[in-house]
Amino acid sequence: MLKQALHQSHYLHQQDWSAITSRARIGIASRKVWSWRPVVSMATSYHEDVVLATRAVRLASRLCQSVQRGLLKQETQTKADKSPVTVADYGSQALVSWSLAREYPSGSFSMVAEEDSEDLRTEEGAPVLERITQLVNETIASDATLDVAPLSKEDVLEAIDRGNSEGGSNGRHWVLDPIDGTRGFVRGDQYAIALGLLDNGKVVAGVLGCPNLPMESIANGVPASSNEPVGCLFSASLGAGATVESLDGSVKPKPVHVSSVEDTTAATFCESYESAHSMQDLTANIAGVLGVKAPPVRIDSQAKYGAMARGDAVIYLRFPHKGYREKIWDHAAGAIVITEAGGEVFDAAGEPLDFSRGRWLDLETGIIATNKKLKPVVLSAVQKCLKEQKPSAKH
Ligand SMILES: Nc1ncnc2c1ncn2[C@@H]1O[C@H](COP(=O)(O)O)[C@@H](OP(=O)(O)O)[C@H]1O
Ligand SMILES: [Mg+2]
Ligand SMILES: [Mg+2]
Ligand SMILES: [Mg+2]
Q1: Ligand 1 site, residue 306, Cβ cutoff 6 A
Q2: Residue 83: what pLDDT?
Q3: For 267-292, what is each residue's pLDDT tens digit?
Q4: Which of ligand 1's atoms lies nearest the C-alpha of 190?
Q5: CB of residue 61 inside a 6 A radius of ligand 1
Q6: Alpha carbon of 329 to ligand 2 centroid (Å)
Q7: Which residues are listed for Mg(2+) binding in this entry (predicted)?
Q8: Is the pLDDT of residue 23 over 60?
Q9: Of 32, 48, 123, 331, which residue has the fewest beta carbons closer than 10 angstroms?
């Protein structure tokens, strides 16, 4: 009902919207005026949403960086689904949620996010919650632009649980993966803070904070050391293109474009570092059919989408093992960064990903990203290899 009411208010206030200059819109938006937002249309600008998302992702990135620097073993728990979750996953979700929700009138904020507070509300979770609250407050206190009272443990739990929306095809919903690539994070490798925005079921904006991704190309793998700054922030919004800037703000945003390579033998591909997340024998077959010569670039998280958006790799192949269901937060921000950089993200049927169905993505076997020119030939190689796959290894 609430979503329906908000949806209607977008229509009611469309005239107000068009009367306001874009400069004023940004100023007003940051002063918590949201109810007059229009429904998605060609004329809709999501610039101010990107500004808010960027601020939230930068804040969360600082917490993640600080935890990764001093990562202690006891700061990693195992969730029931056997994926690791750290105090940084929770802390990042609490910070992004807190940072965004304070810009909305009470009750009008909706977010679909990976984590929830259930384990933190148990006796065993009490010290973990204590630590998360401390990290969240340290991060807020270190930001000179934020002059607010410290959050209580209850505030932190509430902020985490604001991510419990079911999303769907109506209204606006933020989509958050507070740490994508937790395994990479724990290993000291790549991870991303991935924040997208859905408007009536379509991803309209996205920000990817990649604290360990070098600003220089990783086409030949991630260099062990580099003089270039490390830490990228990719952002995109519908019709406005995609950009990369440094996470610390020292390098200003510049437009990014996917690779224009048209010859698959000159193409490179990327995939998950974790072989449990994608069938690497299948992706090797697909690469073989395409005549790809270079070995795959294997990195964790949606940092792959960011790297691809600036041309570091030409094709992204992801084929989870049988029974795995993809979640929207693992792809929403990355998908818009790629599409706004001129690429395409699709499943094995060639269909774009459908983010309108709730917390899960229902798709036809696998996720593929590449440039528009290569889509048909990559798709045909994918379909050929899937057909030839032994029935036992099939999805
Ligand atoms: N068996 C599996 N198959 C495919 N993806 C999986 C998986 N188990 C976990 N994942 C997802 O893969 C994500 C990491 O992506 P990548 O493989 O590109 O590094 C994880 O995100 P989290 O780390 O946020 O849990 C998780 O959602
Ligand atoms: Mg996880
Ligand atoms: Mg994830
Ligand atoms: Mg995650």
Answers
A1: no
A2: 64
A3: 999 999 999 999 999 999 999 999 99
A4: 19
A5: no
A6: 10
A7: 114, 177, 179-180, 330
A8: no
A9: 123
User: pLDDT, tens digit, for every residue of 307-340?
Assistant: 999 999 999 999 999 999 999 999 999 999 999 9
The closest residue, in CA terms, to atom 2 on ligand 1 is: 277
> Cβ(92) to ligand 1 under 6 A?
no
| 89 a catalytic residue | yes
How far is residue 87's CA from residue 79's CA, in Å, rounded to a whole number? 12
Q: Rounded to an integer, what distance in angstroms lies between the CA atom of residue 259 and that of residue 247?
A: 23
Distance CA 196, CA 354 (A): 14
What's the pLDDT at 16? 28
Between β-strands 84-86 and 111-113, what pairing exists: parallel, antiparallel or unpaired? unpaired
> Virtual CA dihedral for 132, 135, 138, 139, nearest 10 degrees?
-110
- Among the options 44, 49, 86, 89, which is catalytic? 89
Would the CB of 138 count as within 6 Å of ligand 1?
Answer: no
180 Cα: distance to centroid of ligand 3 (angstroms): 4
What is the tens place of the pLDDT at every residue in 219-253? Answer: 987 777 767 789 999 999 999 999 999 999 999 99
Q: What pLDDT score was predicted for residue 82? A: 63
Q: What is the pLDDT of residues 95-129, one digit of tens each?
A: 999 999 999 998 899 999 999 999 999 999 999 99
Alpha helices of 124-224 — where are they, by DSSP H? 126-141, 153-161, 182-187
Question: Would you say 62 and 233 are in contact if contact means Cβ atoms under 8 Å apart?
Answer: no
Write the residue with the smallest CA distance to atom 10 of ligand 1. 277
Q: How are beta strands 172-180 and 111-113 bridged, if at all?
A: parallel
Q: Is the CB of 326 under 6 A from ligand 1?
A: no
CATH of domain 264-393: 3.40.190.80
Domains of the chain, by residue range, sit at: 2-255, 264-393
Q: How far is the CA of 182 from the centre of ligand 4 (A)?
A: 6
Q: Do the beta carbons of residue 112 and residue 359 sit within 8 Å?
A: yes
- DSSP H helices, 330-395, are 332-340, 375-388
Residue stretches of the annotated binding site for Mg(2+)? 114, 177, 179-180, 330
CA–CA gap between residue 251 and residue 261 (Å, rounded): 27
Which residue, judged by its Cα, is nearest atom 4 of ligand 1? 277
What does the radius of gyration of the chain's CA atoms come to, in whole angstroms? Answer: 20
- ipTM of the predicted structure? 0.99
